[in-house]
Amino acid sequence: MARTVKEYDERYTEFLDVGQRLFYQKGYAQTSVQDIIGEIGVAKGLFYYYFSSKADLLDAVIERMTTQILASLQPMIDDPACDAPSKMDQFFQRTQSWKLANREFLIDIMGVIYSDENVLLRTKILAATMPIVVPQLARIIRQGMSEGVYAVAYPEESAEIVMELGQALVLPIANLLLKGPPEGVALETALLGLERRVSAYERSIERVLGAANGSFCIVPPALLRAWFV
Question: In this predicted model, what pLDDT tens digit does every residue of 74-85 receive, in sequence order?
Fold first, then answer.
């Protein structure tokens, strides 16, 4: 039995490794299931034993990437010498920096996730990443409560709200990246609008967490604008 489980896990990981590499190299739309199974050297039926579709594989790849990002942040989250506001800022800014370093791949993936026909996939990805991210955010929030900088009754639920607000912020950013500014609107004007929206998001998080006004700067303007250069 142990051998069967090990083989299942190894094959599953192989699909993730090959799928992620081909998505990076060729783009999601240009990568077919046939490309993936051809690289691995297995029958198509085996792919569908593990995944219901290519989109299901993408969901699993994103979930694993989220886990890997959080693992890289774990030493900072665990650091007793780092205060909660610093951890919260670093949590978001390091995540954004990682995303920016993988800009081309993520813009390609945004085109899939934020297309009108993939609302269900977007919902599924959020549902998969929430249990990974929320507990770590809740840890930082609880630390902030003990330090007297956050005032919330329910840290886990507050962490969920922070995540949900973040998803609402990603959509207009993705739309501007994928579609450009609306007709007749200059890019600079659109970027200023995004900066205001980010600021509103940061002020909203402060209200959710009972934090001091102006204490959050999660996406600095320079980091936001770097997506559009």
Answer: 999 999 999 999
